[in-house]
């Protein structure tokens, strides 16, 4: 019996595969599987790359890094554990040559550098690569090729850092300990340790990295020792995770979560087609029963057909996902040096299996109804529709499963799902409101438009799903391409107005005094100025930070480094209290701290929690007594952590300043003098900020555009599926209209009207959605008025309208081929 | 609408055939008849004899294999396409739009034509077919007989000159069939519309003034002896 079922299923599978109710779901499953497998493979390639990096680019077996040097006793202790070590020290500084300047990471190395691996250099641009085992000599500086170009300096020429002269002697191609730079794209220069000593940079701006050769036991000893004696230091070792591994895991999870939109649209399309498939399968099952077959025959055949469908999809999924994976790696390799295409069969099979299980949930309602098939249905022509509540439950199960697979952070999941939920609700409301209003207001009138509106209102559910598919797609495209573009433009204008066009991100007390003099001399306006000190969060409620949170978050990633601690006695003008109470002026209880609201949420902090900061060489405990948020209108320099000014009496640490200035265009050339005198001064111009923003925006736009292609594909399938699901009804409607003596042209006009209305509602929904999102973001985050570009809005509206109407008309072509004769023969 | 016997559909030596498995199947040939507005015609015969095909030819929806179909209005010969706007259909399966209630189903032809007062006229016709109390009911809430009465009202509401009905009582029980037939004939009479119907029911066919019967591959025009020469509806 089973083999009979198998051969029957095989036969029916081949007969049905060309039908739309089979073809569209197969297409949807193909797209989703390709997406998931590509995501999994790409993520795996990146993780493999990071692991390889960890092994090859750590430049040591274990690295301990921190601000400033270790004490002699600490160095001696570590050197007792490991036989070989090397020290590198780096700082951000600005190199100047003639009138050119460039912000760089300057690294100083000794004679024992590199510890492991090779330092690759060359004597000319594009020249022969030299693999070396030592760094520059004293008086030499090695630069990367971009830096040479930006400074317009040649090999052999000399430049000054402070009062010291350096000869540019080589081009750096590769440092074996580059891993620690992560995504850092700063331009780089290398000098000798002895020269760094001579330059007399403030010790607290120098980051020290101690590289050790060590075996497993020595690594463990060092980790234990670091936890006990250097809690603020960062430690990386070959047996641990790459510093960026969590970040990329988060990226994969975020994209995975966003795929809920895709699954949602798939659910819409499949749910509509299921009705058609249901009728056919249940009819077949009932006929089988009438022949005396068991109830399970139809069910078994249906399950086998479904499995065959999945099995035939797999080769295509593998082929397409491999191609897309390769393309994704090519694209990413512009950002990751030496990222290679790496294919892993397990990372294809696992997601395909999960996807198949998820898709089976879409099919459950059909199988459930097949269990209930009976001959009665053939005699009484009973309704064989799939129960809506069952379909809805199954769709919810699918969406919940996808969320669960990709969720690593409740807040992020809630935010992504919330954003999608709001868009969907908005489009649904607009559809319902527009169609109801249209129908009500034209009820008393005759003509094609009132009839089209009336019919659309009557078919609200199927129409809304079409609108939803198109609307979501348009919303995502608009939001990305238009809103972010506007946001960038407005932010630039706003920052220019409030912050000036030059931001000092770190100036020491001495540097600030010189800046004051320089500013007064050149009639430059300082718009804001705020003091801060550096502190590294080590413990939360006595628990080490690495033990406190194991899920990735932006806040956690930032807290892995030292952060800026600001002090004051009154609430800054650009902050507002969200929770708790700000301290009184001259507070005696100085161990109070206010933490920014988003950080509190991200790390799950509460008022009363105790935070331990390592500040210079001192461990300081604070109690969270307040939480603040950014309030626009008084400049954008704000801090995550703020403490009472009274704390300064108890904490000995260097003080720095952040400030913003407004310079005339001509005055920018004066900056070279300041940087020459203070190479460690950190300044960034508004142009640079804008460029960074534009680069980020370009990357985000590319990712979202790729994602939008997938959504557009699915939106088209949603349209086609819904058209197909309604085709029989549409044909009948057109035939009936023709039986009133009206022509096919009338039906065609009705079709155009219907799709024009669908497109209008979807486009309006998307535009209103984008507008609301824009207003919310601008209002809540920047207190700025969102002024969308109306030309772009109208152009977009027209394009969406045109595309949707065209797709709808083409898809509906079949329904126009109806005739009155068909009504007679029914 | 007044009856104008000069409005007629002329079939002149019409024949219809189709090809099946490379064989030509002849349905009928050399059929000449004049369908006059205001008169009733029944087409009878066994299944597959060509009744529906003849109905399609008469309504101008299909072209004959041989012969000619013309539409005459006050002796003016008009293209068959002009007939399209002058005819209404009634089907065995009723074919009401399930999304619309009875009132809107009937008002639909008028609304699509952009006519004013569509709902008032629809209300009148539904009252006329005895469904004044069922205006807001959707098709699935109506019995088969009621649905067919709605379909009759819908076919007549835009005052066509001819009504073509395909087995109008074929799906109904005897009592409902009689009620529907009464309404169909009286409404066509009231409206001055010609009625052409395909039916298997001898009782229904007997109520028509003219009967076209398919027998042994031939189509013959039979006339009621007692009604010969009269315009009369039961």
TrEMBL record, chain A:
<feature type="transmembrane region" description="Helical">
    <location>
        <begin position="389"/>
        <end position="406"/>
    </location>
</feature>
<feature type="transmembrane region" description="Helical">
    <location>
        <begin position="790"/>
        <end position="811"/>
    </location>
</feature>
<feature type="transmembrane region" description="Helical">
    <location>
        <begin position="747"/>
        <end position="778"/>
    </location>
</feature>
<keyword id="KW-1003">Cell membrane</keyword>
<protein>
    <recommendedName>
        <fullName>ABC3 transporter permease C-terminal domain-containing protein</fullName>
    </recommendedName>
</protein>
<keyword id="KW-0472">Membrane</keyword>
<feature type="transmembrane region" description="Helical">
    <location>
        <begin position="465"/>
        <end position="484"/>
    </location>
</feature>
<feature type="transmembrane region" description="Helical">
    <location>
        <begin position="703"/>
        <end position="726"/>
    </location>
</feature>
<feature type="transmembrane region" description="Helical">
    <location>
        <begin position="412"/>
        <end position="435"/>
    </location>
</feature>
<dbReference type="Pfam" id="PF02687">
    <property type="entry name" value="FtsX"/>
</dbReference>
<dbReference type="InterPro" id="IPR003838">
    <property type="entry name" value="ABC3_permease_C"/>
</dbReference>
<feature type="transmembrane region" description="Helical">
    <location>
        <begin position="349"/>
        <end position="368"/>
    </location>
</feature>
<dbReference type="InterPro" id="IPR038766">
    <property type="entry name" value="Membrane_comp_ABC_pdt"/>
</dbReference>
<keyword id="KW-1133">Transmembrane helix</keyword>
<feature type="domain" description="ABC3 transporter permease C-terminal">
    <location>
        <begin position="707"/>
        <end position="811"/>
    </location>
</feature>
<dbReference type="GO" id="GO:0005886">
    <property type="term" value="C:plasma membrane"/>
</dbReference>
<feature type="transmembrane region" description="Helical">
    <location>
        <begin position="254"/>
        <end position="273"/>
    </location>
</feature>
<keyword id="KW-0812">Transmembrane</keyword>
<feature type="transmembrane region" description="Helical">
    <location>
        <begin position="306"/>
        <end position="329"/>
    </location>
</feature>
From TrEMBL, chain B:
<feature type="domain" description="ABC transporter">
    <location>
        <begin position="9"/>
        <end position="234"/>
    </location>
</feature>
<dbReference type="Pfam" id="PF00005">
    <property type="entry name" value="ABC_tran"/>
</dbReference>
<dbReference type="InterPro" id="IPR017871">
    <property type="entry name" value="ABC_transporter-like_CS"/>
</dbReference>
<dbReference type="InterPro" id="IPR027417">
    <property type="entry name" value="P-loop_NTPase"/>
</dbReference>
<keyword id="KW-0547">Nucleotide-binding</keyword>
<dbReference type="InterPro" id="IPR003593">
    <property type="entry name" value="AAA+_ATPase"/>
</dbReference>
<dbReference type="InterPro" id="IPR015854">
    <property type="entry name" value="ABC_transpr_LolD-like"/>
</dbReference>
<keyword id="KW-0067">ATP-binding</keyword>
<dbReference type="GO" id="GO:0016887">
    <property type="term" value="F:ATP hydrolysis activity"/>
</dbReference>
<dbReference type="InterPro" id="IPR017911">
    <property type="entry name" value="MacB-like_ATP-bd"/>
</dbReference>
<dbReference type="GO" id="GO:0005886">
    <property type="term" value="C:plasma membrane"/>
</dbReference>
<dbReference type="GO" id="GO:0005524">
    <property type="term" value="F:ATP binding"/>
</dbReference>
<dbReference type="GO" id="GO:0022857">
    <property type="term" value="F:transmembrane transporter activity"/>
</dbReference>
<dbReference type="InterPro" id="IPR003439">
    <property type="entry name" value="ABC_transporter-like_ATP-bd"/>
</dbReference>
<keyword id="KW-0813">Transport</keyword>
<protein>
    <submittedName>
        <fullName>ABC transporter ATP-binding protein</fullName>
    </submittedName>
</protein>
């Amino acid at each position: 019996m089973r083999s009979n079922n198998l051969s029957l299923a095989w036969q029916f599978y081949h007969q049905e595969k060309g039908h739309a109710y089979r073809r569209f779901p197969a297409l949807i499953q193909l797209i989703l599987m390709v997406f998931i497998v590509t995501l999994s493979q790409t993520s795996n390639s990146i993780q493999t790359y990071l692991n390889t990096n960890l092994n090859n680019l750590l430049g040591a077996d274990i690295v301990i890094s921190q601000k400033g040097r270790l004490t002699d006793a600490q160095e001696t202790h570590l050197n007792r554990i490991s036989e070989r070590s090397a020290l590198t020290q780096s700082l951000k500084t600005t190199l100047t040559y003639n009138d050119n300047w460039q912000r760089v990471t300057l690294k100083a190395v000794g004679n024992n550098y590199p510890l492991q691996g090779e330092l690759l250099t060359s004597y000319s641009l594009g020249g022969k690569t030299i693999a070396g085992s030592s760094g520059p000599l004293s008086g030499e500086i090695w630069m990367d090729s971009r830096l040479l170009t930006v400074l317009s300096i040649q090999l052999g020429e000399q430049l000054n850092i402070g009062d010291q002269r350096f000869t540019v002697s080589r081009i750096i191609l590769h440092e074996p300990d580059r891993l620690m730079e992560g995504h850092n794209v700063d331009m780089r220069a290398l000098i000798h340790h002895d020269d760094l000593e001579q330059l007399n940079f403030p010790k607290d701006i120098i980051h020290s990295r101690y590289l050790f050769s060590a075996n497993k036991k020595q690594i463990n000893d060092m980790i234990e020792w670091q936890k006990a004696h250097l809690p603020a230091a960062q430690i990386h070792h070959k047996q641990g995770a790459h510093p960026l591994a969590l970040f990329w895991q988060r990226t994969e999870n975020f994209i995975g979560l966003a795929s809920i939109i895709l699954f949602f649209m798939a659910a819409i399309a499949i749910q509509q087609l299921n009705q058609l498939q249901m009728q056919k399968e249940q009819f077949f099952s009932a006929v089988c029963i009438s022949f005396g077959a068991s109830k399970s025959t139809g069910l078994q055949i249906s399950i086998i057909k479904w499995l065959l469908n999945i099995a035939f999809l797999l080769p295509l999924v593998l082929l397409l996902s491999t191609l897309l994976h390769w393309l994704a790696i090519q694209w990413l390799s512009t950002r990751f040096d030496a990222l290679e295409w790496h294919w892993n069969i397990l990372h294809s099979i696992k997601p395909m299996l999960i996807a198949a299980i998820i898709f089976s949930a879409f099919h459950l309602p059909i199988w459930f109804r097949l269990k209930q098939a009976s001959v009665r249905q053939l005699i009484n022509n009973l309704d064989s529709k799939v129960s809506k509540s069952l379909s809805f439950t199954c769709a919810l199960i699918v969406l919940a499963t996808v969320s669960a697979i990709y969720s690593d952070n409740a807040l992020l999941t809630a935010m992504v799902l919330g954003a999608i939920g709001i868009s969907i609700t908005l489009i649904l409301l607009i559809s319902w409101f527009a169609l109801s209003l249209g129908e009500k207001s034209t009820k008393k009138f005759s003509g094609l438009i009132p009839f089209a509106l009336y019919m659309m209102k009557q078919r609200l559910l199927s129409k809304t799903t079409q609108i939803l598919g198109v609307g979501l797609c348009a919303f995502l495209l608009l939001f990305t391409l238009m809103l972010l573009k506007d946001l960038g433009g407005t932010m630039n204008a706003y920052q220019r107005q409030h912050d000036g066009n030059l931001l000092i991100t770190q100036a020491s007390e001495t540097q600030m005094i010189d800046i004051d003099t320089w500013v007064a001399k050149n009639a430059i306006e300082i718009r804001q100025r705020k003091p801060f000190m550096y502190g590294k969060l080590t413990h939360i409620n006595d628990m080490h930070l690495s033990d406190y949170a194991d899920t990735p978050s932006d806040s956690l990633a930032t807290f892995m480094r030292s952060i800026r601690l600001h002090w004051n006695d009154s609430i800054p003008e650009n902050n507002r209290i969200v929770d708790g109470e700000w301290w009184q002026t001259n507070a005696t209880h100085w161990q109070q701290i206010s933490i920014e609201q988003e950080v509190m949420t991200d790390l799950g902090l509460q008022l009363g929690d105790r935070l331990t900061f390592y500040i210079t060489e001192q461990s300081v405990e604070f109690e969270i007594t307040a939480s603040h948020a950014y309030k626009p209108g008084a400049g954008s320099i704000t801090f995550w952590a703020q403490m009472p000014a009274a704390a300064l009496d108890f904490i000995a640490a260097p003080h720095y300043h952040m400030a913003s200035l407004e310079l005339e265009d001509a005055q920018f050339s004066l900056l070279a003098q300041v940087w020459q005198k203070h190479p460690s001064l950190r300044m960034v111009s508004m142009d640079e900020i804008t460029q960074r923003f534009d680069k980020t925006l370009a990357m985000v736009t590319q990712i979202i555009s790729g994602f939008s292609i997938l959504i557009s594909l699915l939106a088209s399938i949603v349209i086609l599926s819904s058209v197909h699901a309604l085709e029989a009804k549409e044909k009948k409607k057109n035939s009936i209209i023709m039986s009133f003596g009206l022509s096919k042209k009338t039906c065609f006009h009705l079709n155009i009207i219907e799709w024009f209305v669908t497109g209008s509602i979807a486009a309006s929904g998307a535009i209103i959605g984008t507008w609301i999102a824009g207003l919310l973001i601008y209002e809540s985050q920047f207190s700025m008025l969102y002024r969308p570009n109306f030309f772009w809005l109208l152009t977009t509206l027209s394009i969406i309208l045109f595309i949707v109407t065209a797709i709808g008309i083409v898809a509906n072509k079949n329904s126009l081929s109806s005739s009155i004769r068909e009504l007679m023969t029914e | 609408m007044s009856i104008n016997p000069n409005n007629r559909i002329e079939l002149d030596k019409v024949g219809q055939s189709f090809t099946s498995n490379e064989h030509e199947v002849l349905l009928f040939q050399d059929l000449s008849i004049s369908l006059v507005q205001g008169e009733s015609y029944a087409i009878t015969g066994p299944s597959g004899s060509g009744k529906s095909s003849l109905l399609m030819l008469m309504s101008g929806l299909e072209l004959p294999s041989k012969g000619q179909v013309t539409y005459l209005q006050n002796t003016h010969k008009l293209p068959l396409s002009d007939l399209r706007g002058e005819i209404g259909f009634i089907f065995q399966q009723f074919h009401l739009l399930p999304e619309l209630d009875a009132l809107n189903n009937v008002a639909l032809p008028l609304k699509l034509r952009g006519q004013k007062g569509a709902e008032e006229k629809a209300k009148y016709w539904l009252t006329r077919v005895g469904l004044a109390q069922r205006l807001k009911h959707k098709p699935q809430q109506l019995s088969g007989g009621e649905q067919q009465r709605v379909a009759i009202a819908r076919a007549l509401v835009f005052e066509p000159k001819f009504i073509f009905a395909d087995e109008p009582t074929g799906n109904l029980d005897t009592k409902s069939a009689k009620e529907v037939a009464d309404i169909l004939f009286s409404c066509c009479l009231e409206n001055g519309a010609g009625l052409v119907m395909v039916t298997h029911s001898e009782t229904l066919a007997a109520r028509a003034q003219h009967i076209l019967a398919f027998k042994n591959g031939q189509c013959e025009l039979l006339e009621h002896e007692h009604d010969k020469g009269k315009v009369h509806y039961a």
